[in-house]
Design brief:
Number of helices: 4
Order of helices and strands: HHEEEEEHHEEE
Number of strands: 8
Structural class: alpha+beta
Largest sheet: 8 strands, antiparallel
Strand content: 25-35%
Radius of gyration: 15 Å
Distance between the termini: 32 Å
Helix content: 10-25%
Shape: globular
Length: about 200
DNA sequence: ACATGGATTCGCT
DNA sequence: GCGAATCCATGTT
């Protein structure tokens, strides 16, 4: 059973933590690709100076102000797409960035996707980092706005009951410009997991 | 219209 | 630790 809207309607930092161990499923033309989430980051409203929502709703970010459970995919550095899931009640902008997964199904399709880019390497860690992850899973801006609680193409499955791990929280990556917000401990990852993007 | 810079990644130093 | 690759959303003229 895929995760439903109520799972994503909570605060983004809670959703980010709860998503660890869950599975992203994407059925692509070249096959089904499944990744176990091992690293996430939460982004908030206008008080979070690292969030795209800090300037209010714009053409790009208006999806963040809509209902939870939708995908927010945007391009960065003209090279990569980053995959986020909208959280919180309708009208309150927040999201979780999926930063790293361990590919557990569809390895070959994922590897092919990554090797199509000259800016990412298709080694054994093909979905370790938000740019590579989107590439590997075949997610691009054409998926922006999709409701993953009501889609057969992309959805999230809950973690398995027997999957136990420690959660580490740290400051977020790549947001040095965001003044006091850069210290918020809103990055979460599974301790000692080798697919986490940075130590 | 134009200028700016980014929720990245890799490779070289 | 640093620069390059590369494009488009956003803010300014």
């Amino acid at each position: 059973m895929k995760l439903g809207r109520d799972f994503f309607e909570n605060a983004s930092f809670d959703v980010a933590r709860e998503l660890l161990g869950c599975f992203v499923v994407h059925t692509t033309a070249s096959g089904k690709i499944v990744g176990r989430i091992v690293e996430t980051e939460a982004y908030g409203d206008s008080t979070d100076l690292a969030s795209h929502a800090r300037f209010g709703p714009t053409q790009r970010t208006k999806i963040m102000f809509g209902p939870a459970g939708h995908l927010y995919v945007y391009s960065i550095y003209g090279i990569f797409n980053l995959t986020n899931i909208i959280c919180g009640p309708d009208g309150h902008p927040s999201a979780v960035l999926i930063r790293a997964t361990e590919i557990i199904e569809g390895q070959e399709a994922a590897k092919t996707n990554v090797s199509n880019s000259k800016f990412a390497k298709a080694n054994d860690k093909i979905a370790t980092g938000p740019g590579k992850l989107s590439l590997a899973l075949g997610i691009d801006r054409s998926h922006n706005g999709i409701d993953i609680t009501n889609s057969d193409e992309i959805y999230i499955l809950p973690r398995t009951a027997t999957d136990k791990f420690d959660v580490v929280s740290t400051a977020r990556i790549g947001i040095e410009y965001s003044k006091h917000s850069k210290e918020l401990p809103w990055r979460f990852y599974i301790r000692n997991n080798k697919f986490v993007s940075k130590k």
